[in-house]
Amino acid sequence: MGVGKAxxxxxxxxxxxxxxxxxxSNASFLFTKNQFKSASVLYSQRVFQGKVRALVIxxxxxxxxxxxxxxxxxxxxxxxxxxxxxxxxSEVLVFSTGIIGRPMPIDNVLRAVDSACxxxxxxxxKRASEVISTxxxxxxxxxxxxxxxxxxxxxxxxxxxxxNMGTMLAFVFxxxxxxxxxxxxxxxxxxxxxxxxxxxxGCTSTNDSFGLIxxxxxxxDLRKISDCVENVSLSLxxxxxxxxxGATRTIKVTVKSASIQVKARAIAQAVATSNLVKTAVxxxxxxxxxxxAAAGSTTFPFDQFKVKLYLGTHLLYDGKVHPRGVENARKYxxxxxxxxxxxxxxxxxxxxxxxxSDLTYEYVKINAExxx
Amino acid sequence: MGVGKAxxxxxxxxxxxxxxxxxxSNASFLFTKNQFKSASVLYSQRVFQGKVRALVIxxxxxxxxxxxxxxxxxxxxxxxxxxxxxxxxSEVLVFSTGIIGRPMPIDNVLRAVDSACxxxxxxxxKRASEVISTxxxxxxxxxxxxxxxxxxxxxxxxxxxxxNMGTMLAFVFxxxxxxxxxxxxxxxxxxxxxxxxxxxxGCTSTNDSFGLIxxxxxxxDLRKISDCVENVSLSLxxxxxxxxxGATRTIKVTVKSASIQVKARAIAQAVATSNLVKTAVxxxxxxxxxxxAAAGSTTFPFDQFKVKLYLGTHLLYDGKVHPRGVENARKYxxxxxxxxxxxxxxxxxxxxxxxxSDLTYEYVKINAExxx
Lengths: 372, 372
Description:
Two copies of one chain form a homodimer. Helices cover 36% and strands 28% of the residues of chain A. Chain A is α/β, with parallel strands linked by helices.
């Protein structure tokens, strides 16, 4: 990897990252489903054909809402990387994250590309995450080694986090070989259970991208790969929630014993993203009424006299409130850093887990004061 | 109407309202679509057959999450009103609003019903709204007289406000005669454009009900009735948003020139309910990037290089940002009490308007500290 400074972020912090892969590699990319897309996303979506050789990522400027010029800027960034490293332009993907609507100072960015390409070092996950960070308060990376299999990744993101996807970038690498079809299927499955099951503020962003790249150095069992990729991806996703703007608690909502998975997921999401549940967690208030009301807000029916609701291991409600459970849960909320909400629908075998963070004064402060 | 005190709210405030109609009247009721419903809603849904003679409404206790006992309590309330006023029990509907999960002190409530029924006065909209209020900071009522037609109503609600429906109760009366079918159709149409187009915190509640009652005293043109009912209902709905917990601004989002109505509505809702847009309005920040990102978060595509975005009358974005518009909008945000966001999709003839409020420290405070 190589690092450069284009002056897109305040201070003297590096804001441009080039990652060169050892060879042209099979990859799968998932981009934001937001209709208002960064030009970098539009560009990378257009050129990506299943193979990637290098990534160029800038932070501090979203390259979004700047008219069609943004597409040209993304193309210039890719072209410059390709020229510098003597690789194919169509295998260079461009990613941006930062403030929307500010024209990219393209001359500075291209100079930063030159300097990043001129001094390549081995991939340093921590430093890579730092370079692409914006409002993040800590770098997000993780790796896993099982026998010869290695899976590692880095990410950024703290606000505008919601499925499909938040303002986040995440890149996960596998040293094993996978063909494009298997890679894509694995990628979609893992994404649903990780980056698409987190929410900080219910707001989807313009720039989000999650790449999964197979470096093709060894052969390995698909199930083992899949397991490790999910592990690393979930770890990155949870770090993003943990760093949720203004968050003091991570909230983990599991809906279990549902008749169908889509129902478990919808209810888990409704609870995890409810502003009233999130403020209650911030207030350390075991407000089971709000949790039940959030659970009831989807189109999926359940038997309100039969379901069981737990905070941690404390039973709060099973058709009627359990005052002792509520009192114990109050203590639990004071202490637990990850607050676990479990709703048992008592009807089937399907379950889903969804992660979010509490809603605090600090969240309002950050977002009332951060400007375009 | 008659007023009683059952001690459900703090202080010495009245918390029980009985409204006796001059005769058995055609009516239409819409109840919360939340799956976790107050026993009062379950009871009223079950007994309502198109005719109503009296309403009994308590505030301070939601009669929700208290097991099947709640159904019995609602039935006892209706029965007691019917006995006191010598009317049919099945034409008495029961409504509750307040804290979830606390058993109703039914003996006190029945005594309050007796005292409410013992001293009936003409309907006083302001006082009726005050009696049914919980966290409301001002009473919500309105009336309209056009020639002989009179439409009047009262409501409550400030938090847990979101379509289908918020923690709100609203009752609108028409002096004109309408048959049940016409009444129901009118009711559904109006509800979509009024109470189902407001949001304070995206949280739907367990108790919400909106009743439309035709007193049948005069004959009047349906279109005129419809117009007046929409007017009064929108006025009540807007008062609820204006009283949104912690709100300092009302936000009015209009999406216009859409190809289909459902698209205009989905995009308007996405913008109006975005936490990032709501905090930006609180910060008086003309953050058009967040508005565009919220607009893009639905499944409906639009041409991001062609749409026009206004704050008040100031053009912020039409494929590119307009810095002068942004600067003028900053001043506009300081001054306007109702912040108007207009997104012109430049593609068709359909439009929709959605109302919400800004997200403030005070909202977090109220909801982190208010307990079950």
